[in-house]
Design a protein that fits this description.
heterodimer; A: alpha+beta; OB fold (Dihydrolipoamide Acetyltransferase, E2P); Chloramphenicol Acetyltransferase; 2 domains; 7-stranded mixed beta sheet; 4-stranded antiparallel beta sheet; 10 helices; B: alpha/beta; Rossmann fold
């Protein structure tokens, strides 16, 4: 049977996308994973990959056209398959992926809503919002065999288990990419989305009927956009659910600075201190897998990869580009990737896979003259390293002599649910050692 | 522990129950002089005599009714049907008399009778003699229905069936009579209404009863080779049905494939699939799959005959769908 291909959320915040370009013509065949079209989202333009193999039977949304998440953009199926009057369904929001049973055959009583969808629903259900499975054989008595209702319009198909887990984990199903048949969201898809910590976005109705007299005293509501809302939600979730504690350690920074200066000799583009710290953190993290974890609600999940994020400030809020497999990469490679990601974040915006899922995060306010500070953990990591400014300070040496030294304070924030104090302290000790003797690590 | 065939296990159960209770007797076509069409009653005529091992005419409705009458009068008959295909002739006695008398007499009458014989397709027997009719009996309130899939269960369930005060239909299989398995030497009973966990796994539930257990276990082994562990529930008892064990398995796996060699429409398999869909709705990550016999009269051509029945390959196909895995 021909299936409709629905617009999906290609980024956590996407609600609508426009088709920048179709990469296939009608009747072209494709295999699972092939890019079908390029979709312009709120943040970036991305490829829409085929969820399964088949043939592009009919394009419903042409290049330049817009579609909300959940709206059909094309029909796919087997070669030569007939599409039943697709234009009738291409219209608006009430499109349904499958033809409905004729009116007379529809069960009289309304079927209950699928669980897990009520809370996040924004519109009251209309009977049209419940597409029904197409009747398999015309002889079936639909009064006796009512068809199973699927999710309301705008929502992807999803398994009951996926809905239940989505409700438990607070994942908005509209933001999950379903990889099951006909885009069905399954347990695996929800868990993957929850891991990348997609927040549930709630839209509040705007205030109305302002009273002129008190208007002046009322704070002005600033247009912040979705990104700010996501940052707010995410950090609140982290701060109020993860019991944070902080470990502070001061190091002498001379050798770190010397190493960096030496590395950058004769280089057009110097290697950043942040890339250097990332490299150091990666090598220490690789020896402390107990730091590279995530608290899953009932158990600890230990990562097998060392992915490190760096907090980067942008006009509309901060983002954490992630360098993957830092422990396996050389310093130059890390620096190159990091600066490319930062450039992209500032120009076009990052794709989710470029900023999600850091196991450890570094944040640096040294350039603002902040001596030291505490940071909020960036989930799904369990630890964050806050880097302060490099200052000149009198320090007491081994033989009680006082010298002028350059010092730097690291403050490690940890989630006590997954990382105990001793574990954090052991990591910080090794990290301080590495930062004091960086050449050993860089080699 | 002795290794017995399914046939020997049934024989041992009959022998022990006849020795234990003089009210127990066996009747059916060829059960005496010929030792049974499938030799299940071998040696019993010599041991218990013609009063308790009765050869009957070829008249299923007649001798089944005779059995119901004997049960109402206080005996505990075991009626052997040469196959369940022939038992269709006896439907009226089973459905309208055996299953109803206890309720219609307000509990004054009881009908302690066992109907047993091979059910389901064997080989090369064509459409009229290759039918899996479990749902014919499972459909009827007032009957109990069991379908042992191992020699130990055949022994333990037949003994429980004979001791039960209600009519019990036992579904055996011509192909299973020669299956071998361990049966403890000391006497034991298998309670009616309890499923057996034939294999433990966390990834998907394979639910079946009777002969298809073989294809199911083969499929489970093939899945294991791919790193997938199947939980295999052998229902054993179809009425009453052990829903608790069924749901416990699905609770564990979130995925369910039901395998029943009967036709798919209104079958035990489709009923079990509905129960799981209904009662485990929130636990399911994929629609429940049903692997059934094909919806056709059994073809005589052997290739088609095999193609019309559940196979490890078909079960694997269903497993792929509930696991959303195309690569297995």
């Amino acid at each position: 049977m021909a299936e409709s291909l629905l617009m999906i959320a290609l980024s956590p915040t996407m609600t609508e996308g426009s088709i920048a370009r179709w990469k296939l013509k009608e009747n072209d065949a494709f295999v699972s994973g092939d890019p079908l079209c390029e979709v312009e989202t709120d943040k970036a333009s991305m490829d829409y990959e085929a969820p399964k193999s088949g043939v592009l039977l009919k394009i419903l949304v042409p290049e330049g056209g817009k579609a909300t998440v959940g709206q059909p953009i094309a029909f796919i199926g087997k070669a030569g398959e007939r599409v039943d009057d697709p234009t009738a369904e291409a219209g608006g929001k009430k499109t349904v992926p499958v033809p409905e049973a004729p009116e007379s055959e529809r069960p009289a009583s309304k079927s209950p809503e699928p669980p897990g969808t009520q809370e996040t629903r924004s519109e009251p259900a209309e009977s049209d919002a419940f597409p029904r499975e197409s009747p398999k054989s015309p002889g079936v008595d639909h009064e006796a065999f009512p068809q199973v209702p699927v999710a309301p319009a705008g929502y992807p198909r999803s398994s009951p288990l996926a809905r239940k887990i989505a409700l438990e984990l607070g994942v908005d199903l509209r933001l999950v990419r379903g990889r099951g048949p006909e885009g069905r969201v399954t347990e695996k898809d929800v868990r993957a989305a929850a891991l990348s910590f997609l927040p549930r976005v709630e839209v509040r109705a705007a205030d109305s009927g302002a009273d002129a007299a008190s208007a002046r005293r009322r704070p002005e509501a600033k247009q912040t956009g979705r990104k700010r809302a996501i940052i707010a939600k995410r950090l609140s979730e982290s701060f109020f659910s993860a019991p944070h504690y902080y470990l502070r350690r001061e190091i002498r920074a001379e050798r770190l600075l010397e190493a960096r200066a030496e590395l950058n000799q004769g280089r057009d583009k110097p290697i950043s201190l942040n890339a250097l710290l990332m490299k150091l953190a990666a090598s220490v993290l690789a020896k402390h897998p107990e730091m590279n974890v995530y608290w899953r609600g009932e158990s600890i999940e230990e990562r097998r990869v060392v992915d490190i994020g760096l907090a980067v400030s942008l006009p509309d809020g901060l983002i954490t580009p992630v360098v993957r497999d830092c422990d396996k990469k050389g310093l130059e490679e890390i620096d190159r990737e990091l600066s490319a990601l930062i450039d992209k974040a500032k120009s076009k915006g990052l794709n989710p896979e470029e900023y999600e899922g850091a196991g450890f995060t570094i944040t640096n306010l040294g350039s603002f003259g902040v001596d030291e500070f505490t940071a909020i953990i960036n989930p799904p990591g369990s630890a964050i390293l806050a880097v302060g400014a490099i200052n000149k300070k009198p320090v007491v040496g081994e033989n009680d002599e006082i010298t002028v030294a350059r010092t730097l304070v690291f403050t490690l924030g940890c989630d006590h649910r997954s990382i105990d104090g001793v574990t954090g302290a052991a990591f910080l000790a090794d990290f301080a050692k590495a930062a004091t003797n960086p050449i050993r690590v860089i080699l | 522990m002795a290794e017995l065939t399914y046939r020997e296990a049934l024989n041992r159960a009959l022998d022990e129950e006849m020795a234990r209770d003089p009210k127990v007797f066996l009747m059916g076509e060829e059960v005496g002089e010929y030792d049974g069409a499938y030799k299940v009653s071998k040696g019993l005529l010599g041991k218990y005599g013609a009063r308790r091992v009765r050869d009957t005419p070829i008249s299923e409705l007649g001798f089944t009714g005779l059995g119901v009458g004997a049960a109402l009068a206080g005996l505990r008959p075991v009626v052997e049907w040469m196959t369940h295909n022939f038992a269709l002739l006896a439907l009226d006695q089973v459905v309208n008399n055996a299953a109803k008398m206890r309720q219609m007499s307000g509990g004054q009458l009881k009908v302690p009778i066992v109907f047993r014989g091979p059910n389901g397709p064997a080989e090369f027997l064509a459409a009229q003699h290759s039918q899996a009719l479990a749902s014919y009996w499972a459909h009827v309130p007032g009957l109990k229905v069991v379908a042992p899939a191992t020699p130990a269960d055949a022994y333990g369930l037949l003994k429980s069936a004979i001791r039960d005060d209600n009519p019990v239909v036992v579904l055996e299989s011509e192909m299973m009579y020669a299956w071998k398995g361990e049966v403890p030497e000391e006497e034991f009973l298998v309670p009616l209404g309890k499923a057996r966990l034939a294999r433990e796994g966390r990834d998907l539930s394979l639910v079946t009863f009777s002969k298809p257990i073989k294809a199911v276990m083969e499929a489970a082994e093939l899945l294991r080779a791919k790193g997938i562990e199947a939980d295999v529930v052998d229902l054993r008892s179809i009425r009453p049905l052990d829903e608790e064990s069924l749901y416990a398995s699905v609770r564990k796996t979130g995925r369910c494939v039901v395998v029943d060699e009967s036709w798919p429409v209104a079958s035990v398999g489709s009923h079990v699939a509905w129960l799981v869909s209904h009662n485990c709705f929130d636990l399911l990550d994929a629609p429940v799959e049903l692997v059934s016999g094909e919806d056709v009269p059994m073809p005589y051509n052997h290739s088609l005959e095999l193609a019309a029945q559940p196979s490890a390959d078909k079960i694997l196909g269903a497993a792929r769908r509930v696991l959303y895995r195309e690569d297995i």
